[in-house]
Amino acid sequence: GPLPGADLTRDRSHATLDAHVLDLGGTWHATEMATFHLTYRLNDRSQTGALDARGLGGFVGVVTSHHVRVHRVTADVALEPRPDLRLGAGATYARRDARFTLTDDRVATDTVSALGEVRWQPRPWFEGWARYRNEQIDDPLVATGDPLGAPPLPAREIALTFSNRGTTGVRLRPWTWLSVRYELIAESRENATFRARSQSFGNSVLVTATPKPDLLASVGYTRRDVDSRADILIAPAYTPVRSLQRGVETVVTGELDWTFRLLGQRWTAGAAVTYVDAADVVGPRLEGDQLGTSFFNLDRVDGSASLTLHHTWIEPSIEFRLIDYNERVLPRNDYRA
């Protein structure tokens, strides 16, 4: 579009995006219990664009492009020593090469991750699992700093480059029409160059019921506790200050789908509602007293109702959706749509 604040008499722009994806894979059944997988993916994406504009301020010409290429290799093994027990382990290596012409930046990022998993189903109505993933990122993007300044500013990385994620859960199916699923997720991400650590613990429960083949109802509850801390430098004195974001996020969901026949056709009526509540403490405050903290509280309700006709040739549908967004600290951001 035209440049803001200029009375343009002529402008022209164009952009192109090219993407290429290549997938290769192989499987080897070493024994009846052991299977090996090896996969490779190449994701190559390039984009170019140009803008020519002339206005009262003169002529402006901009040409920009970027090229991102990602190589990813994954190797894993799946073991089934018993009919009710499955084990898995694997590793992934990824190389990302990126080039941006506008800033003349060339960035190469290496990522190595390892994964272990176990699933146990001793009874048809019970299943348990546990999964662990570790990931390390060699990211060269750093804030250069100014070691000769007064005070000196050290260079530091800007990403959380070391992460651990563990998941465990159970699924119960006491009756064919009812299932209960519980899952615990614990995650930690770190970067020692600026003493950054982000930890989160999530608990979720999902109850699904199908009392009739054409009726589905589900209710879910999720609670996530977050604690993120890092060292930051605030101008003009650049005194190290501990940054904090700590809080609780709660999500409640409900869904109902009913499929029925009317006028010789099959219809589906559905309704869904999601309630989100977030209460966070963040600091430091960047206005006034820098040693203080502030609060972020959010309430959001998202509800919808829909009706779909399943015709042989076409499936028209209509949906009504309501969103009520309420921010108790910044009420000017509230809206209803």
Question: Can you put this structure into words, describing what you see?
Answer:
With 337 residues, the protein is an all-beta fold. The chain has no helices and 17 strands. It has strands at 10-29, 34-55, 58-82, 85-100, 105-123, 126-138, 142-143, 156-157, 162-175, 178-191, 196-212, 215-234, 239-262, 265-283, 294-310, 317-327, 335-336. The strands form 2 sheets. The protein has a 15-stranded antiparallel beta sheet, with no helix packed on it. A two-stranded antiparallel ribbon has the order 7-8. It is globular, with a radius of gyration of 27 Å. 1% of the residues are buried.
Please give a quick description of this structure:
By secondary structure, the chain is mostly beta strands.
What are the SSEs and their pairings?
Elements lengths: L9 E20 L4 E22 L2 E25 L2 E16 L4 E19 L2 E13 L3 E2 L12 E2 L4 E14 L2 E14 L4 E17 L2 E20 L4 E24 L2 E19 L10 E17 L6 E11 L7 E2 L1
Antiparallel strand pairs: 1-2, 2-3, 3-4, 4-5, 5-6, 6-9, 7-8, 9-10, 10-11, 11-12, 12-13, 13-14, 14-15, 15-16, 16-17
What share of residues is helical? under 10%
Number of helices: 0
Structural class: mainly beta
What distance lies between the first and last C-alpha atoms, to the nearest angstrom?
A: 28 Å
Strand order of the largest sheet: 1-2-3-4-5-6-9-10-11-12-13-14-15-16-17
Strand content: over 45%
Total beta strand runs: 17
Summary tags:
single chain, two-stranded antiparallel ribbon, mainly beta
